[in-house]
Amino acid sequence: MLVVSYQKVLLNGASETISGSATEPTFSRAIDSDTGLYFPGDNLIAVTTGGVERARFGSFIEFKADGRTVLPQEIQPLAAGSQTLDCATTSTIIKAGGNATITFANMGEGQSVTVIFSSTGSAYVLNWAGETIAWAGAAKPTPTTSLSRFDFYTFQKLGGVVFAAASLNHGIV
């Protein structure tokens, strides 16, 4: 039997624990009480170091740096249409193609953001708002119209300007 602390009780062979938090994880070492594992919600387990959540596991895996998700293992596609992208909480999104305005919010200096569009097979127009954007070649690219193709748009904020590039028409062959 492993006794972690007063937080763990064995009931008929099953363990019951408190949920914990990033600053006071459920399981930690006595000499490093703000580093360990805790349970932020149903079917979730999180890893914390120095009192800051660094990774979360559930039906997905996400890693965090400076409070932002930086490497989502599974990215759920968003529906077509306009979208505000909160750059403080995510750095990658995937959307179904269709006429849309993507508005950037809370984009930090030096931050990189990727927006992936899945083509619907018909022409559509994308507009970008919330930041001054400098496109590669000084021209906004035209989205791919072929069905089942992907367009990758990458944005990086440097010196208050968002520099953007696109890699278009990706498909599986």
General description of the model:
The protein is mainly β. The chain folds into two domains: 9-59, no CATH class; 69-170. The protein contains no helices and 16 strands. It has strands at 9-11, 14-16, 27-29, 32-38, 45-49, 52-57, 61-65, 68-69, 83-86, 92-96, 100-105, 112-118, 126-129, 133-135, 150-158, 161-170. The strands form four sheets. It has a six-stranded antiparallel β-sheet, with no helix packed on it. Strands 10-12-15-16-14 form a five-stranded mixed β-sheet, with no helix packed on it. Strands 9-11-13 form a three-stranded parallel β-sheet, with no helix packed on it. The radius of gyration is 21 Å and the shape is elongated. 17% of the residues are buried.
Residue-averaged pLDDT: 79
Q: What characterizes the major β-sheet?
A: 6 strands, antiparallel
Terminus-to-terminus distance: 54 Å
Indicate the overall shape.
elongated
Strand residue content: over 45%
| Strand order of the biggest β-sheet | 3-4-5-6-7-8
* DSSP helical segment count: 0
Unreliable segments (pLDDT under 50, ≥5 consecutive)? 1-11
Topology (SSEs and partners):
Blueprint: E1 9-11, E2 14-16, E3 27-29, E4 32-38, E5 45-49, E6 52-57, E7 61-65, E8 68-69, E9 83-86, E10 92-96, E11 100-105, E12 112-118, E13 126-129, E14 133-135, E15 150-158, E16 161-170
Parallel strand pairs: 9-11, 10-12, 11-13, 14-16
Antiparallel strand pairs: 1-2, 3-4, 4-5, 5-6, 6-7, 7-8, 12-15, 15-16
Offer a quick outline of the entry:
The protein has strands at residues 9-11, 14-16, 27-29, 32-38, 45-49, 52-57, 61-65, 68-69, 83-86, 92-96, 100-105, 112-118, 126-129, 133-135, 150-158, 161-170. It is mainly β and 173 residues long. The strands form four sheets. A six-stranded antiparallel beta sheet has the order 3-4-5-6-7-8, with no helix packed on it.
